[in-house]
Amino acid sequence: MEQIFDSLADASRYLQDSYNGHGTIVGADTGLVLKQCRCRKSTNHPVVYAKDANGYANVGVNPWRDDVFGRSNVTVLTPNDELKGVRNGIFLAGPASRCRKPIGWREAFINLFQLYNAPCTILNPEIAGYGEFDDERYRRQTEWESNAMYLATRIIFWIPRTEEHPALTTNVEFGEWNYADGIYVGFPLNSQHNRYIATKCEDAGRGTYNCISDIVRDVVHDIGQKPRTFFTSDTHFGAERTLELSRRPFRDVKHMDMELASNWNKTVRDCDTVYHLGDFGDWGMLDNLNGAKIVLVKGNYDREDEVPDDARLEVHENPMKVKMNRNGQVYTLVHEPCCDESSDGLFLYGHIHQAQLVKANGINVGVDCNNYKPVDINTIEFRTNGIKKYYDENVFCQKAGK
User: Fold this and answer.
1) Which of 28, 46, 88, 229 has the fewest other C-beta atoms within 10 Å?
2) What is the pLDDT of residues 294-352, one digit of tens each?
3) What is the pLDDT of residue 208?
4) Residue 68 confidence (pLDDT)
């Protein structure tokens, strides 16, 4: 267990006596950095914890931030706003005040994301009157939060659990999302009853944080890595027919759309490129999907008059070829495996949904064959290697048995 000093002054004296003043002091009750070590010459300087009885009282969003640093790349949406244009969405999950005054920890996160100026959309569910909603307003609030968590690229659970703020609904949300991709979890060292949360995070293969700054740093690094390339097909957003005929494991069309959007956004960041090999479906979903560039090879359900005017979107009527720089492999991108292109080379295709993952010269990138999410180039290369070296007649035969 970490040592917790009774005050910032006590922690500072300890660092002065033991480390010549070097080290970082983190609030044990809030996770806020109370004193930042400025020395860059050593990574061995400690992080120590001190009680910060004032809590988040002094935290507030800086109104002058844009005046000093220029226009921010950070957009903040609350339940008073429509979920529109959500890119690199970061949902701030955790306890909210049940009175008109917010707890303040979300403002601390927003301040730090603005300081990094990371291109993202902060999804902040806490608004005034949170604990005073009538049934209709509460239902709208709950729906907004649920949809925002689906659309988010990363979900941050910060759980400063106290008797006043027990974070009971946070427990439910954490249980729903613990094993999903893109989840970050933390709590102040002095928070109550978070041992079980920490244990479940360990089971899911992730650690926990005790400092807000550390989470923000890692999330910014996460969404800011160099661009990657993904492939997908046959999302069929909004299609009841596809839900039924492909026997997709979703309650209804809305659930299907939200799960597909969640898988897309928690896999693809807004700097990445996605090749979509046809049958996108409801184009109203595009505005909330990540991707710096989205290349569509039109499928049999993609209608010219329905494709939106989106600067990120590049549309191809016919098959196209792409060369992957990693291995120099050229792929022909088609919607239907049966096409007029030469049969030489390797194809990426969709159209047949879950019917067949690979052919002797092609790979199915449709969502039904790929856990309902886009496929990264590493997986494409893995399957390409399998086709060239390891798959045999048992994979490619037309009939089973003799």
Assistant:
1) 46
2) 999 999 999 988 999 999 999 999 999 999 877 789 999 999 999 877 778 899 999 99
3) 98
4) 58
Tokens 């080379």, residue? 345
> Mind listing the domains of the chain with CATH numbers?
4-50 (no CATH), 65-223 (3.40.50.450), 229-396 (3.60.21.10)
How many residues are recorded in the chain? 402
What is the structure's pLDDT at 72?
81
Identify the pLDDT of residue 128: 77
Closest CA to 350 of 334, 338, 373: 334
* DSSP helix/strand/coil, 120: strand
Distance CA 161, CA 145 (A): 20
Side by side, which strands form the sheet with 120-123?
A: 74-77, 120-123, 89-93, 154-158, 183-186
Cβ neighbours for 330, distance < 8 A, ≥ 6 positions apart: 321, 322, 323, 324, 345, 346
Residues β-bridged to residue 314: 295
CA distance 356 to 377: 19
Nearest Cα neighbor of 108 from 192, 36, 213, 187 is: 213
Pairwise CA distance, residues 286 & 363, whole Å: 25
Say whether pLDDT at 233 is over 90: yes
The residue among 141, 30, 124 whose CA lies nearest residue 86 is 124
Nearest CA-CA partner of 150 in 236, 86, 220: 86
